[in-house]
């Protein structure tokens, strides 16, 4: 065999294997982008050597072979896939092709929709009655999953109204909302069962259960977005209108669908949805643009695997594959040892990642991550990159399990892991350079003492040079010491000294936060300052008194008492005050009543102009309580598009239900 032949055969075998793992076992071992890359590699080789293309090549079929165990159903109208665009230019090129084919100069109208990360299904309704449902399978033949689809509560067994075609095949995406997925995996973890890698696999695994009782126990939902075969009746002439009709017939659609004229408006939609992505209750991996007019869709037609009238604009992959070069332990401000995987750099979630957190030893143990392993790395939104799982098939020989070091890697003090806690800590306290550095960085941070210009790198230099041992040393730094540092000079030294000096004038809340007491964040520090009014009173408070303060439970109370009892901490505070750090005492004041004090709100469904977090924050700022479940005490339920079960509960309990416009008016009024 020639080298090219061999390469093609190897790629085909590898792709087939991944297809099998994905579709049949529901247990993929590589992330989608890696699969796409292999697929494209094969496509390119086949394009260069068309004589080597065989009908059995994975490029020659739409999906993978259906699993056995279900009756097979042939799709009269094939279930196609979508071409992908990653860069804006690819979308612009798509729009141009549409124009060229239609010989049209005018802007084309597109329906823009989130690309749901679930699995495609098709449902047949006859005379409005649900008859059967099938998976996409290989695009021509799927599996009969009627019994399972019936268990999804939001699937109507009888369409509403009268104007539906006598034979109507509707298509959509079954998915598992993020919250349900988290619960399912938490349950699996507790019972030592296998967890699902992501909500899509969980949805697929749940749908392809031979026992529909299992499906029924899983939190699945569906959004409809297309029709298949239609006979004896009419449907509207545009996609957007069709979706409105779907709603009237009782078929759920995604609430975030919008019309856009021209490619710029499409891009705007893309960015808008990308911003909302983290807050959506379900996973999406991009957006889909569809030429809105069915007539134009018809004119454009199809190419082998996909329609010419639609394209998926994908977000940068959030999961990628990389290799673990080393596993190291980072020591944090409170001495906590966090295992970190040093990775071969990989582009994921829009940035290059070379470190990923492994959280703690329990996590390493559970995922069994070892040096040399090939791993799936995930970076979603602004969350710290993490190792999701190991590709066991690629584990080299002679790897060893990672052990928690018994000595701190920075200061060699003993590492202590209290029984029942997940976190192990270095016992070195401020003797440990790492803890020293972190505590000084925290002290100087903007939300703490706000020492402008005293950034992380500078703190590290100063600690390494033994110029800073604890936070009070900041106020003893001299012009000469600073000016002699790397990348500093007389001017920046003078600036830093001015900033250090002006940080002396602070507030009690900032000072308490800056001390870095374990688990005392900004909000708790504020509450403590308000409650005690001055430092002496706080230092004398016992655990019982501390627990009277909002936000403070037994753990935080114990941490506060322990902190102030330590002679070393008392000395540092005295030194800070001696250096001139000062603040006005706080006179605890009865709070002016806020306009929505005493009222409680519950939000459900998707709001159009505000995210849920924004609405929550604005309501809370006016004194309202925002709660996640409806009770008889709830003052109002605010319902957006596609409200959940809270809506019915509110109706049952006679709680007033208001819409977004009402909420906006209320917020504006105050
Ligand atoms: S339309 C002929 N709309 O993406 C076009 N598909 O890559 C049919 N998907 O198999 C699909 N969200 O599973 C369409 N809003 C959406 C979608 C969507 C997710 C999935 C679907 C399809 C795959 C194609």
Structural class: alpha+beta
Strand order of the largest sheet: 2-13-10-3-9
Number of domains: 5
Average pLDDT rating = 90
Tell me the major beta sheet.
5 strands, mixed
Characterise this structure.
A five-stranded mixed sheet has the order 2-13-10-3-9. The protein has five domains: 58 residues, Helix Hairpins (Orthogonal Bundle); 241 residues, 2-Layer Sandwich (D-amino Acid Aminotransferase, Chain A, domain 1), CATH 3.30.470.30; 76 residues, Nucleic acid-binding proteins (OB fold (Dihydrolipoamide Acetyltransferase, E2P)); 164 residues, 5' to 3' exonuclease, C-terminal subdomain (DNA polymerase, domain 1); 70 residues, Rossmann fold. The chain is globular, with a radius of gyration of 30 Å. It is built from 24 helices and 24 strands. The protein is 37% helix and 20% strand. Strand 23, helix 23 and strand 24 form a beta-alpha-beta unit. The longest helix has 22 residues. With 670 residues, it is of the alpha+beta class. The site of 2-(butylsulfanyl)adenosine has 15 residues, from strand 3, strand 8 and strand 13.
Describe the secondary structure blueprint for this structure:
Elements: H1 3-24, H2 32-48, E1 72-74, E2 84-85, H3 88-102, E3 109-116, E4 119-126, E5 129-135, E6 141-143, H4 146-150, E7 167-175, H5 178-190, H6 199-207, H7 212-216, E8 221-231, H8 239-249, E9 258-261, H9 262-276, E10 284-291, H10 294-300, E11 302-303, E12 306-307, E13 310-314, E14 319-331, E15 337-348, E16 351-357, H11 361-367, E17 374-378, E18 386-390, E19 415-416, E20 425-426, H12 433-444, H13 456-464, H14 479-483, H15 490-503, H16 508-514, H17 522-532, H18 535-540, H19 543-546, H20 554-565, H21 567-578, E21 600-604, H22 612-621, E22 625-627, E23 636-639, H23 645-652, E24 657-658, H24 660-669
Parallel strand pairs: 2-13, 21-22, 21-23, 23-24
Antiparallel strand pairs: 1-6, 3-9, 3-10, 4-5, 4-7, 7-8, 10-13, 11-12, 14-15, 14-17, 15-16, 17-18, 19-20
Helix pairs in contact: 1-2, 12-13, 16-17
Bound molecules: 2-(butylsulfanyl)adenosine.
